[in-house]
């Protein structure tokens, strides 16, 4: 189930982010794995602004898209994430579009379309507000980044707007450009 995040969810969001970041260590992107999750106050601000959503396991112990895989989260992942939360998404408004600031899913829940569900929820939110597109920045060649976003309908932006350029400059200043990064956009039909 996807629902708006609550301030009480913030500690679990930070744990989900930590767990998801560890996956980057496997491919040598320690800079991502070592980065601290957003501070609690920052995540709480997204919650209060109505731009944070969570995916949680259903009462039966399965998560969104679990029809593709059996079972729920591992015991350790459940405990680290708190109350059955398995993923989250926070969004900003950038260059007149809904911008995926962060989407993270527990590694034990990969392949269950949880991230896709969160992104589709954001797309509906954006359509309801008359926004023309979703945007994001990501690693071009990391399999669960660039290629994943292409499968979800995103395309590389060759000439990003000023807001996305500022985000990219900030990412470079944080040392995230150790692998090629790019800005992407997905047009929203019916907006």
| Secondary structure tally: strands | 7
Order of helix and strand elements from N to C terminus: EHHHEHEEHEHEHE
Whole-number mean pLDDT: 87
Q: Ends: how far apart? A: 25 Å
Based on helices, strands and strand pairing, what is the structural class?
Answer: alpha+beta
Biggest sheet record: 7 strands, mixed
Give the key terms:
191 residues, 7 helices, globular, 37% helix, 7-stranded mixed beta sheet, alpha+beta
Task: Explain what you see.
With about 190 residues, the chain is an alpha+beta fold. It is about 35% helix and about 25% strand. The chain has seven helices and seven strands; from the N terminus they run βαααβαββαβαβαβ. It has helices spanning about 10-25, 30-35, 40-50, 75-80, 115-130, 145-150, 160-175, and strands at about 1-5, 50-55, 85-95, 95-105, 135-140, 155, 180-185. A seven-stranded mixed β-sheet has the order 1-2-3-4-5-7-6, sandwiched between helices. A hairpin with a 2-residue loop joins strand 3 (about 85-95) and strand 4 (about 95-105). Mean pLDDT is about 85; it is low at about 60-80.
Topology:
Blueprint: E1 2-4, H1 10-25, H2 30-33, H3 40-49, E2 52-56, H4 75-81, E3 85-94, E4 97-105, H5 114-128, E5 133-139, H6 146-151, E6 155-156, H7 162-173, E7 181-187
Give me a quick take on this structure.
By secondary structure, this protein is an alpha+beta fold. It has seven helices and seven strands, in the order E-H-H-H-E-H-E-E-H-E-H-E-H-E.
């Amino acid at each position: 189930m996807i629902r708006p995040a609550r301030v009480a969810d913030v500690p679990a969001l930070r744990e989900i982010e930590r767990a998801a970041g560890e996956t980057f260590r496997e491919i040598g992107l320690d800079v991502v794995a070592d980065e601290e999750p957003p501070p609690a106050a920052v995540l709480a601000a997204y919650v209060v602004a109505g731009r944070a959503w969570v995916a949680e396991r259903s009462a039966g112990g399965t998560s969104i898209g679990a029809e593709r895989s059996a079972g729920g989260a591992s015991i350790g992942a459940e405990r680290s994430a708190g109350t059955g939360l398995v993923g989250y998404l926070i969004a900003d408004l950038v260059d007149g579009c809904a911008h995926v600031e962060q989407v993270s899913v527990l590694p034990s829940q990969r392949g269950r379309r949880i991230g896709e569900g969160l992104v589709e929820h954001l797309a509906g939110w954006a359509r309801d507000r008359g926004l023309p597109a979703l945007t994001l920045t990501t690693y071009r060649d990391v399999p669960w980044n660039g290629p994943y976003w292409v499968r979800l309908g995103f395309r590389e932006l060759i000439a990003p707007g000023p807001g996305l350029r500022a985000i990219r400059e900030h990412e470079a200043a944080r040392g995230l450009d150790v692998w090629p990064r790019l800005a992407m956009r997905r047009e929203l039909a019916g907006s």
